[in-house]
Design goal:
mainly alpha; about 65% helix; globular
Length: about 375
């Protein structure tokens, strides 16, 4: 896992351009009149980066798990990111949350570049980083969410698995499954890589069991403080994240498009349906030229959110599914497809700007 100074300068350049864009748009969104947003303007410089779920992470960091958050509770959010915020809260909770997210976003793109460059070369590595950073939902790598931390952990896990360092895979997998529920999915591609590398099961395979142990540790802790090990799932149901069949969540979105309560329902549901279709197509195409462990992880990351009662935030879930961007970079090596992907990403950057402004205001009432 090496990176040269020349490589680092290229990646830092892309990273700085991305950060300038996101932070500028976020602050410019303050110009949106308060009467057409749901956000109450505050004096905090971090306000544009601390909307929606970010408030839950900050609340956990400040007050621990409790039943007072947002009129319900904060049990549905995972603890590693809030714990890090708490540890570094001596510099201020919001500043700690912002710095942690942005430092790990830089670590994540460096690891992505290293991973892709080692397998496909410098050009594909650089394109993968660009496609990741300018994806429509990539602003989540800047705001106070878990995306940056989770992506960095995931990429580190795959890199250590390539070197058969299973103790690091297990320990980082444990942390990943304390960061997001999708962390448990890493057990499957890691088990595949273990069998591929080791050829037979040895004692060190036990390290892989640390991956699911993370989520069970959270469940045990929540049982101790609430008496209910499943309380995180009940909390998610209150936010329309109950468990259902994948086709049901898609049908719900289609119905929301056909019989909308607002214009926003049409736009948002249509966008999420498009993301699912586009990701399914990329997954189908990419199976031919990326390793099976990446295909497995890609498939699981795509299907997992569909088991909830809502396909909302599909772009956010895909923004940390790194094989997507590896596949797009490889596709763009075909000159016949490069122009199409460039046009797609021109539209993607526009969507990134819009979605960043939308998030920074929690909601802009452009739709009725």
């Amino acid at each position: 896992m090496k990176i040269t100074k020349k490589d680092a300068k290229k990646i830092i350049g892309i990273f700085i351009i991305y950060k300038i864009l996101i932070i500028s748009v976020a602050y410019a969104s303050w110009l949106v009149p308060e009467e057409i947003t749901r956000r109450k303007h505050s004096d905090s410089l971090f306000d544009p980066f601390a909307q929606l779920d970010a408030r839950a992470y900050l609340d956990i960091a400040k007050n621990g798990y409790n039943a007072e958050f947002n009129g319900t509770s904060n049990y549905g959010w995972y603890p590693l990111y809030p714990l890090l915020i708490r540890i570094f809260s001596f510099i201020g909770f919001e500043l700690a949350a912002f710095l942690i997210a942005n430092i790990f976003s830089f670590i994540a793109i460096l690891l992505l570049y290293i991973l892709v460059k080692d397998e496909f070369g410098e050009k594909v590595g650089k394109k993968s980083v660009f496609y990741l950073l300018f994806f429509p939902a990539s602003f989540f790598l800047t705001v106070m969410y878990t995306e940056s931390l989770f992506l960095a952990l995931t990429l580190a896990i795959f890199l250590f698995a390539k070197e058969s360092k299973w103790h690091f895979v297990g320990m980082l997998g444990f942390l990943a499954s304390l960061t997001r529920p999708q962390g448990i999915l890493l057990f499957v591609p890691m088990a595949y890589m273990y069998l591929k590398n080791e050829k037979k099961i040895k004692l060190n395979t036990l390290f892989l069991l640390l991956i699911p142990v993370g989520i069970f540790t959270l469940m045990a802790y929540q049982y101790l403080i609430t008496g209910d090990a499943l309380i995180q799932f009940y909390t998610q149901e209150k936010y329309v994240r109950g468990i259902t069949f994948p086709w049901d969540s898609i049908l719900i979105a289609i119905k929301g498009t056909i019989n909308p309560q607002s214009t926003f329902d049409i736009v948002y549901n249509s966008f999420n349906i498009f993301v699912i279709a586009a990701m399914s197509f990329i997954l189908y195409r990419s199976r031919k030229y990326i390793k099976k462990e990446y295909t497995i992880y890609f498939f699981l990351s795509l299907i997992f959110p569909l088991f909830s009662a809502s396909i909302a935030s599909m772009a956010r879930f895909m923004s940390v599914t790194f094989p997507v961007f590896m596949a797009l970079a490889l596709e763009s090596e075909d000159k016949k497809k490069e122009n199409s992907i460039n046009i797609l990403y021109a539209a993607s950057i526009i969507l990134l700007i819009i979605s960043t402004a939308y998030y920074a205001n929690e909601e802009i009432k452009l739709f009725v």
